[in-house]
Amino acid sequence: MSLLRQHAPADHADLPGPATEQMLAAAEKRMGISLPQDLRAWLLQNNLDLPEEDVDDDVACCGFAGFPDEGSFFLGVREMEKLYASRLMPGGVAPPDQPDTTFWRNEWIPFLSDQDGWTGKFIDVRDGRIGRWFVGEITITGDYESLTHYFDSVAEMLTKIGDGRHPVCEVAEGRLVWS
Fold first, then answer.
1. What dihedral angle (degrees, nearest 10) is formed by the CA atoms of 116, 150, 82, 1?
2. Do 76 and 47 contact (CB within 8 A), yes or no?
3. Residue 77 pLDDT exceeds 90
4. Radius of gyration for the chain, computed over Cα atoms and rounded to the nearest angstrom
5. Were both Cys, which of 92, 96, 121, 123 would link to 106 (CB 3.0–4.6 Å)?
């Protein structure tokens, strides 16, 4: 977040701030699953839910457009919980008769999505690995070893953007602009 503040201060200024322990505990209770420690740490610094008045009921997920990329955004606690509930599977795995060929597992908590909820990234609560899904395709697990490794890649991207070395993003008037 310090790199976002440094390279795109107007975008950073729009972000709402941290979640509270009470918010996380209530979300965990409603979801029936504990958040991994590194996801908790992220949310306690950055709850990226839009203000209620900015939520668009016509989209599956709402968030701050343009970060970390043009088509997706980090989920705040409310949107994370909403998307998790929409993906929840009876028996814990989809399809339940093919546990090794899964499209979704209840142990996966989404933390990044597009507006439709069709594609995004999740953290596996069993081992902390980061995976990605795209509706209609088999989900990929282990894209990143951990949330820390994923955020390292985001930091590298923000550094390239700030240095003018990113092929499809630049900063204009303190905001990330994707081409």
1. -100
2. yes
3. yes
4. 16
5. 92
